[in-house]
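Sequence only, no structure available. Ideas?
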Amino acid sequence: MACECASVKSRVSGNVELVRDGDTGLILEPGDVRGFAADQLQLLISDPSLRRSVARRACEQIASKFSLETSAKR
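Reply:
I predicted one. Tokens follow.
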């Protein structure tokens, strides 16, 4: 996410707290291999606009939540 790459993640602890499905990444159920390969990755491959916007928003989120300044304040 920090490298401005769109990502697909399983709905497990940590991921669901960090990723907003369809906004800063795509989320699927754990073990859904078909959904991962056939649905989510295909969606990102076939829709460059979605891929870029998801990647950009994810990078912005990471930069704001985990910057040195934000981390030091916590």
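Residues 28 and 36 are 7 Å apart (CA to CA).
Hope that gets you unstuck.
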